Amino acid sequence: MRFNRIFRNTYKYMGPSVLIAMVATILGFTALFISPVPMIADFGKTLTLGLAVSFLAALIILTTNLYIRDKYFCDHTAAKACQLPPENKWLETMLAKLTKLVLSKKFLILTICLAITVWGFFGDTNVGVQTDIETFMPQDTPELVEIREFRDLMGSTDQLAIMVQGSDLLDDKNLAWVDTLTTGVENQFPEIIDSTVSITGLFGETVDNETLTKQNMSDFLDDLPETQRKLFIDEDRQTTIITLNIARLENDSVKTFINDLNQYLADNELQGIEPTVTGQAVIDAEMLSALTSGRMEMSLLGIGLVFMGLLFIYRSFLKAIVPVFPISLIIGWSGGAMYLLGLDYTPLTATMGALIIGIGTEFTILLMERYFEEKAKGASKEEAMVTTVSKIGQPILASGLTTIGGFSALLFSDFLILREFGVVTLLNITFCLISALVVLPPLIIMLDRNKTKSVSAVNPA
After folding, report:
1. Which residues cross the membrane (predicted)?
2. Is CATH 2.40.160.10 what the domain over 2-126+295-447 is classified as, yes or no?
3. What whole-number distance in Å separates Cα of residue 76 and Cα of residue 61?
């Protein structure tokens, strides 16, 4: 029956193309796996799993429902039963005209796109990185308002710690070094360190007219309540903590201060004593740096993986480079757009390179597959491309617009980090559509030198 043939042809012709597009998208997302931050790597794994599930759902559930509908819920004796919905002739005509215009100006269009890409990469170098967690939140959040009021009253809520270890920590010489370090760092970094707290400082404030010696310190520690003593020194009395109350700093400033502090400790080292800068601020600085660094590395890895995967599948350099090249341009466009809009990279937008490659490659592969299918029917390159864009361009455009609609919900979030992620995502999906419908057609026409019908669509075994 007719509907049986329709579904067989759907699986036969569209199945391999969609499968290849899915594999290429997964390879693009795989670049997220190299992130040193587990949450980014897990994000990539979640995207990969979701994509595989979506493919199986479309392959099995969607087509099965359509098959059941056509076979069991349509009166095939009626003339107009189960007829296909009317085609969007206006959209098809518009896409055909757009393609003809693009092909007639192919050199100009590609030159402009390349120029924008180069400019975008330069603009990207001037895009800042926002790592202050407080800026990601709604600024009128009661908890945020209260912590800022508390900070105004107390002067500081952020801390760093210097962990000092030594086998004979209570030796007179070592205690003198700890005491000197306590006041020394405060004098060395007066604009950053508001105050310091250490066991030697507590000793000086509590004990009158006593010299800082091993015996006096031991007696002082013995008299301290255990709960208070544990705040300053361990049970073996070989490790103590110097707490630094520091001003509120941006992540880059925190990292600079930590590096300067480590250098100060190295310049004032004492044999037998090992100081280490530690604390939550150190962990936060490293975590945020890891979240926002490696953007270009992840993007290049994603491009490389997709290219190598397509080269392995197609055994053709042309069919491997054509889907990847237009998407590579978007990375530059995205950076340039963020520069123009004054947006900074955040832990979320730093992952956009891999997402662009994953999402955009799907569009370009489906267009390329349909192009070679039309070529196999004997059409010329230009005719094949016009037919391709006018036909398959419609579902690609619909897919892109529905994705844009879904991500548009982020624009209404109270959290700045989500709003900016939504803006950047909408821009990049729009760029993906432009690269597929405007950049790919002239590119493939210029690179495809085979003018015969022997070039056929790939149908992997």
Report:
1. 12-34, 46-68, 107-123, 296-314, 321-342, 348-368, 396-418, 424-447
2. no
3. 23
HSE, CB side, 13 Å, CA atoms: give it for residue 111: 4
Least confident among 338-342, 375-379, 436-440: 375-379
264: tokens are 């100060």
d(CA 88, CA 189): 69
Which three-class secondary structure state does DSSP give residue 355?
helix
If you ran DSSP here, which 8-state letter would residue 129 be given?
Answer: B
Give 363's contacts (C-beta < 8 A, 6+ positions apart): 396, 399, 400, 432, 433, 435, 436
Residue pair 23/313 in contact (Cβ under 8 Å)? The answer is: yes
Q: 3-class SS at 36?
A: coil
- Alpha-helix runs per DSSP H in 129-279: 133-136, 142-154, 172-188, 199-206, 214-223, 226-229, 251-267
* CA distances from residue 380 to 65, 388, 389, 451 in whole angstroms, order as listed: 37, 12, 14, 7
Q: Residues 352-411: pLDDT tens digits?
A: 887 888 888 888 998 998 999 888 888 889 999 999 999 888 889 988 899 899 889 989
Domain boundaries, the chain: 2-126+295-447, 136-288
DSSP state of 381: H
Residues 138/177, Cβ–Cβ less than 8 Å: no
Listed in sequence order, the residues at least 6 apart from 299 whose beta carbon sits closer than 8 Å to its beta carbon are 31, 331, 353, 354, 356, 357
Task: Check residue 413 and give its pLDDT.
Answer: 87
Regarding pTM above 0.70, the answer is yes
Name the residue type at position 423. V
DSSP string, 321-343: HHHHHHHHHHHHHHHHHHHHHT-
User: Within 10 A of 127 (CB to CB), how many other CB atoms are there?
Assistant: 21
User: Residue 314, Cα to own-chain centre: how many angstroms?
Assistant: 29
Contact between 437 and 389 under an 8 Å Cβ cutoff? The reply is: yes
Q: What is the CA radius of gyration of the chain?
A: 31
H/E run at residue 87: none
Distance of CA 229 to the CA centre of its chain: 45
437 exposure class (CB count in 10 Å sphere: 0-12, 13-18, 19+)? buried
Q: For 212-235, give one letter per residue: b (16+ CB within 10 A) or e.
A: beeebbeebbeebeeeebeebbee
